[in-house]
Amino acid sequence: MGSPSEIDSALLKKLERSFARLAGADAVIDPAELQAALGLKSEYLAKRIFSLFDTNGSGSIDREEFLSAVKKLVLGSPEEKLLFAFRLMDHDGDGTLDRSELLRMVTLSLAESTVVARDTQPPEQLVAALLHASDTNKDGRVSFDELSAVMQKHPDLLWRMTRSEATWIAPNEDLFEGVGVWGKSQRSGMGQMLATGAAPVVIVVVWMIANVAVFMSSIGKTEMLAPGTNPLIQVGRALGACLDLDGALILVPMMRRLLSRVRATWLGRAIPVDHAIAFHKLVGHSLFALACAHVAAFVFAYAAGHTSLPLFHVLMSARGATGGVLLVVFAVMWLFSLGFVRRSARFELFYFTHLLYVVWLGLAIAHAPRFLFYAGVPIAGFVVEQILRLVRRGKESPILLAEPLRSGVTQLRLQKPKGFDFSAGDYAFIKVPAVAKHEWHPFTISSAPEAEELSFHVRVLGNWTHALRHHIDMGAPPDVAHVDGPYGSPSAHIFRSKVCVLIGAGIGVTPFASVLESIVLRGNGQSDRPSKLEKVHFFWLNKDQYSFEWFTSLLSDLEKTDQRGMLEVNLCMTGARSGLTSLGLDLARQVMHQKGRSDMITGLRTKTHFGPPDFQTWLGRIANAHPGEKVEVFFCGPPGLGKIVRATAEKLRMGYREERF
Fold it and tell me: Is the bond into 478 cis (omega within 30 degrees of 0)?
């Protein structure tokens, strides 16, 4: 951690940037600008905050007022921070908080977070609990000293509140960098790169060396060096040899059954099978670039006078025609495989255009028969995989339940096909003929291996998922589905760990739902599957309170059966407002929680945290709680959040595995 002067200097620069962004050309912040900056729905609440910033009463916040107020929130003493929150709640400015002021603040906080209070815990009851805990002289009011006394029983609450408020005030700025303590786990860039093992790096390096070796070997052949040979022709043919190599390699990561078997063996710890899809994408992009360069080399060679044949004859030759069609087919496949297509409502464009791989392989063999020298074995293995898929996925599975859930998720519960044995966290492809006769889509299995049924939680995203939801909403749920799988995933490693952290964001919780249900069944003695797990820290992030309903019953079972305290559950409602504006609400919820009342968001014993999670602090505490142990972090959620979690895990020397969806 830097010296106070260094911290203050760095903080000042960050606050200057935030003020300039908020103030605009007139260099002052008015109430409307502050309300927009904080994302507040309530104009009244925005004016309350504005009045605390506008210390000179000028009707606007200048640079000095902004810097002074925010610095106090970040570096001020606990008393200064709490006084800011107290004055915010003290609407009439009489130095005490009465029931009506507390009720107004709690109600406003609920509205800002779009939280619907449970019938068993209305705002009036929350305020009553808060008054009972803090009003020691029983005069019906809470003084600053009384609020300070009750806050001392919750030392982390004020820290979380002020940190969150500063984040709202200065978005995109880490105001706390250098202020907190990271621990002993800072490492160099090389150490971070190798945190999850050197295997992915080794594979990529070997692949690059192999391409260079094939290129140099091809360009150095005697016939290539014959007098009069156009150098561009030499380069084009050498690039063609690299195309042969990568065209064979691109098939291997797609052999899902083979990789699932490898993952279950000791080889799964040595070979980075969890990165198979990423490697497939890397080779695919490289392959398309090589194809364009290969064609360009021959085009420029022709332009330089390599042959006197008319262009039409060149294009209509066997090599010319197959090469041209190959490039067109490849361009279509590459374009529609890009992320913006796959993540859009037009996922089917990716799905169907990628089936052109059959045409691509046929054309590649016709264009350059030597391609079979490289690709013969991978093609044979891939064909065997496809035959097995066709044989094993033909049987129908009755759909026992098709239920539309809130927040755009559909639950499907199927009769488990005979002999369908899978591991927690595995995924499968499903086809629902009533929705689309020929489309297969991959989804994580959300039920435990020990369960008698298969369940899937399908997020409504593309045309297929919308059509499935429409069938159910219209009262015509599909009656049968076909299942292809199972296929392994990074979650297969969870039960091989002693201490693990499971982080699921939104529907990304589904692989961990399977794991958690399996933990429940093993804890009840209903499973004899092996497990090394001794402690599980589970985090589930959702934007709204309704999304938690997907697996509330499962989490409730976990709370009842976890007698050994093996599982620690942390729920975060990221769309809820957390900060000094919600201090009254959060303190009331904390008091209710200490009294043994269920959480007002989920109805569980576990308290739901408001606002984005602070993974630096949370993962840091977990690392400190397990000294000498290798803590494994498993993440499933949006890639942007995954980058944050991964960087934090690497700094703390934790293992990291990510499941993409």
Answer: no
Cα–Cα distance for residue pair 196/304, rounded to 1 Å = 50
The single residue listed with the structure tokens 């692949």 is: 207
Q: Residues 6 or more apart from 325 whose CB is under 8 A from it? A: 363
User: Rounded to an integer, what distance in angstroms lies between the CA atom of residue 602 and that of residue 572?
Assistant: 11
**What are 149-192's pLDDT values in tens digits?**
888 877 677 666 666 666 666 655 555 554 443 333 333 333 33
- Is the CB of residue 544 less than 8 Å from the CB of residue 530? no
Amino acid residing at 118: R
Residues 244 and 374: beta-carbon distance below 8 Å: yes
Query: In 3D, which of 648, 655, 640 has the Cα closest to residue 619?
Result: 648
| 423 Cβ contact list (under 8 Å, min separation 6) | 264, 449, 486, 488, 492
Dihedral of the CA atoms 634, 636, 640, 643 (nearest 10)? 10
Mean pLDDT, residues 7-30: 74
Whose structure tokens read 């009465």?
A: 98
C-alpha span between 293 and 412 (Å, rounded): 47
Pairwise CA distance, residues 173 & 155, whole Å: 25
Angle at which helices 276-303 and 231-249 cross, to 10°: 160
Q: 394-488 is classed in which CATH architecture?
A: Beta Barrel (2.40)
What is the distance between the terminal CA atoms of the chain, rounded to a whole angstrom? Answer: 38
Residue by residue, DSSP assigns 39-69 as T-S-HHHHHHHHHHH-TT-SSSB-HHHHHHH
Bridge-based pairing state of the strands 409-415 and 427-431: unpaired
CA angle 425, 333, 284 (to 5 degrees): 65
pLDDT band, residue 9 (cuts 50/70/90): low
Query: What is the per-residue pLDDT across 327-356, written as a single tens digit (0 to 9) for each?
Result: 899 999 999 888 777 766 677 788 788 889
Q: How far, in Å, are 230, 347, 442, 461 from residue 341 at the CA level?
A: 40, 6, 16, 12
Q: What is the CATH number of domain 4-169?
A: 1.10.238.10
Q: What is the radius of gyration, based on Cα positions, of the chain?
A: 30
**524 pLDDT exceeds 70?**
no
What token pair was written down for 76?
A: 């001020």
Domain ranges of the chain: 4-169, 200-390, 394-488, 491-575+611-659
**Which amino acid appears at position 28 of this protein?**
V
Q: How far apart are CA 473 and CA 404, in angstroms?
A: 7
**What span, in angstroms and rounded, lies between the C-alpha atoms of 29 and 49?**
12
Give the residue carrying structure tokens 């063996």. 265
Give percent of the chain with pLDDT exceeding 90.
Answer: 6
116-154 in b/e burial notation, b at 16+ Cβ within 10 A? ebbeebebebbbbbbbebbbeeeeebbbbebbbebbeee
Distance (Å, whole) CA 437 – CA 257? 24
**Which residue has tokens 């940037």?**
17
Asked whether the beta carbons of 139 and 8 are under 8 A apart, the reply is no
Asked if residues 319 and 265 have their Cβ atoms less than 8 Å apart, the reply is no
The SS3 of residue 567 is strand
At residue 614, the 3 state secondary structure works out as coil
| 18 and 24 Cβ atoms separated by less than 8 Å | no
CB 8 within 8 A of CB 75: yes
What is the second-level CATH architecture of the domain 491-575+611-659? 3-Layer(aba) Sandwich (3.40)
Q: What 3-state class would DSSP assign to 232?
A: helix
- Read off the DSSP letter of residue 445: B
Q: Which residues pair with 541 in a beta bridge?
A: 505, 572
